[in-house]
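$ fold --in a.seq
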Amino acid sequence: MATLHRIAIVEDDTETRRLLVGMVRSTPPLQLVGEYGATDVAVARLPADQPDVVLMDINLPGMNGIECVRQLKLVLPSTQFLMLTVYEDQNHIFAALAAGATGYLLKNTKRTQLLEAITQISNGGSPMSSAIARKVVQSFARPPAAPSPVVESLSPREQAVLELIAKGFLCKEIADQLGVTGHTVNTYIRRIYEKLQVRSRSQAVALYLKQST
């Protein structure tokens, strides 16, 4: 008997979500436990759904899919998040993986390959579209890059905050780790964004990971 996989979908495009829902419902080993068009609703309801696998878009209104994964992974540590997106640049790839995603597929992935990926990720694998896997491999194949002058410009405390952000810590948790107030952490984060010339946590993490690889 095939193993039952509980699936949830977070996708704001109605037609794409309809196709994904139809695929899941027509595949007996899969059980649809939730479908959401907005990340705030997904964050509120997915913990109760207890999905095994979440198919997650990135470009979503309000909170993006990467931040949604980061928040949900804290309360659903055993759930596997499979990004299903049009983005194939390294910033999005590494930010998604750093947030807790286990797989990364492009939306032009064929139905049969997507179903195989769901099984693979449920069995401990990390499915990726071939183009994505190549970019990941290439990033590790490059000679170590010299530290970015911009990242080097961060103070030791700012670098410590950025490292904790990359590990998925929340502001309050960072404050507890460093023995400072939440307001102080927010000040550090604002300075980090200014120095790195980024506008979001995911962009800062992507830049940090680039330097670390």
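$ fold --in b.seq
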Amino acid sequence: MRLLTCVLVALIMVVGTASAASPVHTEKGDKAMVFTFHGLGELGLSGYGDDWGLGLRYYLSDMNALRAGLLFGMSSFTEKGIAEGEADLEDSESAFGIDLNYERHLGAPCASVSPYIGGGIGYWSWSGEFENIDLASRDNPKITEDESGFYFQGIAGFEWGFTDCMTLGGEYQLGWASGSWKQEYDPVEGETQTWDEEEFSFMGFHTASVFLSVYW
């Protein structure tokens, strides 16, 4: 039932905006803020690529654009100990990442649709620090985790101008990614030991979330 409702909502949106379709802005100097949707079940709008992401597109010349993304965020959580002498639970995380994609827009029979091809690179880094995370005893040592990696990709996608100065779009990505992850702990204050360490790589297709671009 939920799926049927989502399909009906999507059809209503398409029918309601078809008559208002507008040409996609692909001229030198055009620029847009880029957002993504993660799952049509909730229609949840997020930052570019992630809740902490910021995305921008800028046309260097007619039909040639750069799309850049910046990921940055920090969070912390503390649950105070209630009993006398009980340690606090502490959790802090931070993330950073950048990506840069080149889009070569192509001609199309419909002015409201602008297909493109291109490529891009990216880097991400994440770290977390957790103290006394055992809810039962609250006496675990401090645990730290770090992950980082980079990727290269080829892209093929489109923008659809469903109204003036706003587009929706999707993208296929074929790329290669490589990264590493490490988990360390401090059994004694000032002494750090590696608990687990991994390296990974991936090559294949990926489908990007639905893009919402707002031109100004």
